[in-house]
Amino acid sequence: MDKRLNIKSKPPVHPSACFLTIVLDWLWFLVELVKPLTIERPLTLLMIVAGAFITCFIPVSLIQRLGTHDPWKSSISKGLLMGIAVAVPYPVVGTFVGVILLATARFSLRIQSDEPDE
User: What secondary structure does DSSP assign to 48-84, as a single string?
Assistant: First the structure.
């Protein structure tokens, strides 16, 4: 049997990072509901966007680095992308990205478990 067929692929983003992105997206939405985002309050908008970005970027980067042993460059870039997704106002982009990547991770894990051990 060909050995190349037995290569196990890992999900692009760790499932806990995807779940964290979804949770943070909705938690920051609660903050947005309390302090509505308007043009008259640019400082409030900037603080909410920066807070959402930082609270997602750092944990996702660390999860990717320590949990999946990705290189720092890859971990930081995934953290940046997930942080940007959460920083977009209202829970649309972060939830969408988190759900899609969580489904991809689940699909990847399922394929690995369906493979016969040799």
Answer: HHHHHHHHHHHHHHHIIIIIS---HHHHHHHHHHHHH
